Amino acid sequence: DSGVTQTPKHLITATGQRVTLRCSPRSGDLSVYWYQQSLDQGLQFLIQYYNGEERAKGNILERFSAQQFPDLHSELNLSSLELGDSALYFCASSVDDGRSPPLHFGNGTRLTVT
Amino acid sequence: GNSVTQMEGPVTLSEEAFLTINCTYTATGYPSLFWYVQYPGEGLQLLLKATKADDKGSNKGFEATYRKETTSFHLEKGSVQVSDSAVYFCALSPPMVGHAGGTSYGKLTFGQGTILTVHP
Protein backbone atom coordinates (compact mmCIF):
# COMPACT_ATOMS: atom_id res chain seq x y z
CA ASP A 1 0.00 0.00 0.00
CA SER A 2 1.55 3.28 -1.17
CA GLY A 3 -0.48 5.38 1.26
CA VAL A 4 -1.68 7.59 -1.60
CA THR A 5 -5.44 7.25 -2.05
CA GLN A 6 -7.29 8.13 -5.22
CA THR A 7 -11.03 8.16 -5.77
CA PRO A 8 -12.95 7.10 -7.69
CA LYS A 9 -11.17 4.14 -9.28
CA HIS A 10 -13.26 4.34 -12.43
CA LEU A 11 -15.27 7.14 -13.99
CA ILE A 12 -17.36 6.99 -17.14
CA THR A 13 -18.86 10.17 -18.51
CA ALA A 14 -19.91 11.84 -21.73
CA THR A 15 -18.20 14.46 -23.86
CA GLY A 16 -18.75 18.00 -22.68
CA GLN A 17 -19.15 17.00 -19.05
CA ARG A 18 -17.08 17.94 -16.01
CA VAL A 19 -15.54 15.57 -13.46
CA THR A 20 -13.51 15.85 -10.28
CA LEU A 21 -10.78 13.43 -9.28
CA ARG A 22 -9.63 13.28 -5.69
CA CYS A 23 -6.28 12.43 -4.14
CA SER A 24 -5.24 12.06 -0.52
CA PRO A 25 -1.46 12.11 -0.02
CA ARG A 26 0.54 9.90 2.30
CA SER A 27 0.40 11.00 5.89
CA GLY A 28 2.93 13.77 6.43
CA ASP A 29 3.46 14.52 2.73
CA LEU A 30 2.96 18.14 1.70
CA SER A 31 3.27 17.90 -2.08
CA VAL A 32 0.77 16.36 -4.46
CA TYR A 33 1.56 15.65 -8.11
CA TRP A 34 -0.86 14.81 -10.91
CA TYR A 35 0.03 12.75 -13.98
CA GLN A 36 -1.92 11.58 -17.00
CA GLN A 37 -1.25 8.26 -18.72
CA SER A 38 -2.80 7.83 -22.15
CA LEU A 39 -2.08 5.54 -25.08
CA ASP A 40 -1.17 8.50 -27.29
CA GLN A 41 0.99 10.57 -24.95
CA GLY A 42 2.26 8.04 -22.43
CA LEU A 43 2.75 9.19 -18.85
CA GLN A 44 2.85 13.00 -18.53
CA PHE A 45 3.30 15.37 -15.60
CA LEU A 46 0.38 17.77 -15.22
CA ILE A 47 0.84 19.85 -12.09
CA GLN A 48 2.25 19.92 -8.54
CA TYR A 49 0.88 21.55 -5.40
CA TYR A 50 2.89 22.11 -2.25
CA ASN A 51 1.18 23.03 0.99
CA GLY A 52 -1.76 24.54 -0.85
CA GLU A 53 0.19 26.48 -3.46
CA GLU A 54 0.91 25.64 -7.10
CA ARG A 55 4.60 24.64 -7.27
CA ALA A 56 5.27 23.38 -10.79
CA LYS A 57 3.28 23.08 -13.97
CA GLY A 58 3.56 20.70 -16.89
CA ASN A 59 1.42 19.94 -19.92
CA ILE A 60 -1.90 20.71 -18.32
CA LEU A 61 -4.71 21.88 -20.57
CA GLU A 62 -6.61 25.08 -19.79
CA ARG A 63 -9.78 22.96 -19.41
CA PHE A 64 -8.10 21.24 -16.47
CA SER A 65 -7.50 22.77 -13.07
CA ALA A 66 -6.38 21.56 -9.68
CA GLN A 67 -6.23 22.71 -6.12
CA GLN A 68 -4.93 21.53 -2.77
CA PHE A 69 -6.99 22.04 0.33
CA PRO A 70 -5.90 22.88 3.89
CA ASP A 71 -6.10 19.19 4.84
CA LEU A 72 -3.66 18.61 1.94
CA HIS A 73 -5.93 16.50 -0.21
CA SER A 74 -6.07 17.59 -3.82
CA GLU A 75 -8.67 17.63 -6.54
CA LEU A 76 -8.16 17.64 -10.29
CA ASN A 77 -11.06 19.15 -12.20
CA LEU A 78 -11.52 18.26 -15.85
CA SER A 79 -14.13 20.19 -17.82
CA SER A 80 -15.55 20.24 -21.35
CA LEU A 81 -14.37 16.68 -21.64
CA GLU A 82 -13.29 15.30 -24.99
CA LEU A 83 -12.79 11.72 -26.13
CA GLY A 84 -9.04 12.28 -26.01
CA ASP A 85 -9.19 12.96 -22.27
CA SER A 86 -9.83 9.27 -21.67
CA ALA A 87 -6.81 8.16 -19.67
CA LEU A 88 -5.51 6.90 -16.36
CA TYR A 89 -4.87 9.79 -13.97
CA PHE A 90 -2.28 9.21 -11.27
CA CYS A 91 -1.56 11.16 -8.15
CA ALA A 92 1.70 11.02 -6.23
CA SER A 93 2.94 12.71 -3.10
CA SER A 94 6.19 13.67 -1.46
CA VAL A 95 7.20 15.12 1.85
CA ASP A 96 8.86 18.27 0.51
CA ASP A 97 8.40 20.90 -2.17
CA GLY A 98 9.98 18.86 -4.95
CA ARG A 99 13.56 18.63 -3.72
CA SER A 100 12.99 14.87 -3.62
CA PRO A 101 11.25 12.86 -6.33
CA PRO A 102 7.82 11.39 -5.58
CA LEU A 103 8.32 7.94 -4.12
CA HIS A 104 4.86 6.49 -4.37
CA PHE A 105 1.89 6.88 -6.63
CA GLY A 106 -1.73 6.07 -6.07
CA ASN A 107 -3.45 3.32 -8.06
CA GLY A 108 -4.99 5.86 -10.40
CA THR A 109 -8.43 6.88 -11.61
CA ARG A 110 -9.43 5.50 -14.99
CA LEU A 111 -11.50 8.06 -16.87
CA THR A 112 -13.51 6.98 -19.89
CA VAL A 113 -15.18 9.67 -21.98
CA THR A 114 -17.85 8.40 -24.36
CA GLY B 1 12.39 19.48 -25.22
CA ASN B 2 13.17 16.59 -22.90
CA SER B 3 12.45 13.04 -23.95
CA VAL B 4 13.10 9.48 -22.78
CA THR B 5 13.25 6.42 -25.00
CA GLN B 6 13.06 2.90 -23.60
CA MET B 7 13.60 -0.40 -25.35
CA GLU B 8 10.36 -1.82 -26.62
CA GLY B 9 8.86 -4.71 -24.76
CA PRO B 10 7.51 -6.91 -23.68
CA VAL B 11 10.56 -8.63 -22.26
CA THR B 12 10.13 -12.25 -21.24
CA LEU B 13 12.80 -14.01 -19.21
CA SER B 14 13.27 -17.16 -17.19
CA GLU B 15 13.95 -16.91 -13.49
CA GLU B 16 17.63 -16.19 -12.66
CA ALA B 17 18.30 -14.72 -16.09
CA PHE B 18 20.18 -11.44 -16.55
CA LEU B 19 18.06 -8.39 -17.24
CA THR B 20 18.88 -5.26 -19.20
CA ILE B 21 16.29 -2.64 -20.10
CA ASN B 22 17.78 0.11 -22.22
CA CYS B 23 16.97 3.76 -21.63
CA THR B 24 18.34 6.79 -23.44
CA TYR B 25 17.39 10.40 -22.96
CA THR B 26 17.50 13.82 -24.57
CA ALA B 27 17.73 16.82 -22.29
CA THR B 28 19.49 20.13 -21.83
CA GLY B 29 21.93 20.44 -19.00
CA TYR B 30 22.26 17.71 -16.39
CA PRO B 31 18.91 16.13 -15.60
CA SER B 32 18.28 13.68 -12.79
CA LEU B 33 17.40 10.16 -13.87
CA PHE B 34 15.02 7.63 -12.35
CA TRP B 35 13.59 4.18 -12.73
CA TYR B 36 10.06 3.59 -11.52
CA VAL B 37 8.34 0.21 -11.27
CA GLN B 38 4.63 -0.57 -11.43
CA TYR B 39 3.60 -3.97 -10.09
CA PRO B 40 0.29 -5.44 -11.26
CA GLY B 41 -2.67 -3.60 -9.78
CA GLU B 42 -0.53 -0.97 -8.04
CA GLY B 43 0.70 2.56 -8.61
CA LEU B 44 4.25 3.41 -9.66
CA GLN B 45 6.97 3.46 -7.06
CA LEU B 46 10.49 4.81 -7.24
CA LEU B 47 13.01 2.02 -7.76
CA LEU B 48 16.28 3.95 -8.00
CA LYS B 49 17.74 7.30 -9.00
CA ALA B 50 20.93 9.07 -10.03
CA THR B 51 21.37 12.81 -9.94
CA LYS B 52 24.73 13.36 -11.64
CA ALA B 53 26.99 11.83 -14.25
CA ASP B 54 28.65 8.49 -13.29
CA ASP B 55 26.32 8.06 -10.31
CA LYS B 56 25.05 4.52 -9.85
CA GLY B 57 21.59 4.04 -8.43
CA SER B 58 20.78 0.68 -6.87
CA ASN B 59 17.91 -0.98 -5.03
CA LYS B 60 16.54 -4.53 -4.63
CA GLY B 61 19.34 -5.92 -6.78
CA PHE B 62 18.66 -3.51 -9.64
CA GLU B 63 21.33 -1.07 -10.81
CA ALA B 64 21.60 1.74 -13.32
CA THR B 65 24.52 4.07 -14.07
CA TYR B 66 24.10 7.64 -15.30
CA ARG B 67 26.20 7.82 -18.51
CA LYS B 68 26.44 11.39 -19.72
CA GLU B 69 28.61 10.51 -22.74
CA THR B 70 26.04 8.09 -24.13
CA THR B 71 22.98 9.83 -22.57
CA SER B 72 21.89 6.49 -21.15
CA PHE B 73 20.58 5.02 -17.91
CA HIS B 74 20.16 1.31 -18.57
CA LEU B 75 18.52 -0.83 -15.89
CA GLU B 76 20.22 -4.13 -15.00
CA LYS B 77 19.70 -7.01 -12.63
CA GLY B 78 21.91 -10.05 -12.41
CA SER B 79 19.26 -12.63 -11.55
CA VAL B 80 15.58 -11.85 -11.97
CA GLN B 81 12.77 -13.42 -9.97
CA VAL B 82 9.14 -14.07 -10.80
CA SER B 83 8.27 -11.29 -8.35
CA ASP B 84 10.10 -8.78 -10.58
CA SER B 85 7.38 -9.09 -13.20
CA ALA B 86 6.11 -5.54 -13.62
CA VAL B 87 6.20 -2.50 -15.88
CA TYR B 88 9.39 -0.46 -15.66
CA PHE B 89 9.51 3.25 -16.50
CA CYS B 90 12.63 5.29 -17.09
CA ALA B 91 12.20 8.99 -16.30
CA LEU B 92 14.09 12.25 -16.03
CA SER B 93 13.53 15.54 -14.27
CA PRO B 94 15.07 18.89 -15.13
CA PRO B 95 18.23 19.95 -13.33
CA MET B 96 17.51 21.50 -9.96
CA VAL B 97 19.30 24.78 -10.62
CA GLY B 98 19.28 26.45 -7.25
CA HIS B 99 15.81 25.02 -6.78
CA ALA B 100 14.40 28.05 -8.54
CA GLY B 101 10.67 28.54 -8.75
CA GLY B 102 8.98 26.03 -11.02
CA THR B 103 11.74 23.41 -10.77
CA SER B 104 10.84 20.17 -9.12
CA TYR B 105 11.92 16.54 -9.16
CA GLY B 106 8.25 15.78 -9.66
CA LYS B 107 8.32 17.41 -13.09
CA LEU B 108 9.08 14.04 -14.63
CA THR B 109 9.33 13.06 -18.27
CA PHE B 110 8.69 9.32 -18.63
CA GLY B 111 9.58 6.72 -21.20
CA GLN B 112 6.81 4.57 -22.60
CA GLY B 113 7.37 1.75 -20.12
CA THR B 114 8.68 -1.79 -20.62
CA ILE B 115 6.65 -4.80 -19.57
CA LEU B 116 8.79 -7.49 -17.94
CA THR B 117 7.47 -11.01 -17.45
CA VAL B 118 9.59 -13.55 -15.59
CA HIS B 119 8.67 -17.24 -15.82
CA PRO B 120 9.64 -19.87 -13.22
Largest beta-sheet details of chain A: 7 strands, mixed
Poorly predicted parts of chain B: none
Subunit organisation of the chains:
heterodimer
Mean pLDDT across all amino acids of chain B: 91
Structural class of chain B: mainly beta
The secondary-structure element order of chain B is EEEEEEEEEEEE
**What structural category arises from helix and sheet content of chain A?**
mainly beta
Kindly estimate the percentage of residues of chain A that lie in beta strands according to DSSP. over 45%
Shape of chain A: globular
Poorly predicted residue ranges of chain A: none
Q: Using only CA atoms, what is the Rg of chain A?
A: 13 Å
Q: Roughly how many Å apart are the termini of chain A? A: 31 Å
Q: Level of helix content of chain B?
A: under 10%
C-alpha termini separation of chain B: 41 Å
Strand tally of chain A, please?
Answer: 11
Query: What's the tally of helices of chain B?
Result: 0
Could you tell me the number of beta strands of chain B? Answer: 12
Which word captures the global form of chain B? globular
Explain this structure.
The complex is a heterodimer of chains A (114) and B (120). With 114 residues, chain A is mostly beta strands. Helices cover 0% and strands 53% of the residues of chain A. Chain A has strands spanning 5-7, 10-13, 19-24, 31-38, 42-50, 53-57, 64-68, 74-78, 87-94, 104-105, 109-113. In chain A, strands 2, 4, 5, 6, 9, 10 and 11 form a seven-stranded mixed sheet that branches. Chain A has a four-stranded antiparallel sheet with strand order 1-3-8-7, with no helix packed on it. The model of chain A has no long low-confidence stretch (mean pLDDT 94). By secondary structure, chain B is mainly beta. Helices cover 0% and strands 47% of the residues of chain B. Chain B contains no helices and twelve strands. In chain B, the strands form three sheets. In chain B, strands 2, 5, 6, 10, 11 and 12 form a six-stranded mixed sheet that branches. Chain B has a four-stranded antiparallel sheet with strand order 3-9-8-7, with no helix packed on it. In chain B, strand 5 and strand 6 (44-50) form a beta hairpin. The relative contact order of chain B is 0.33. Classes of the chains: A mainly beta (114), B mainly beta (120). The A-B interface holds A 2, 4, 31, 33, 35, 42-45, 48, 55-58, 90, 92, 94, 97-108 and B 32, 34, 38, 41-46, 49, 89, 93, 96, 99, 102-113.
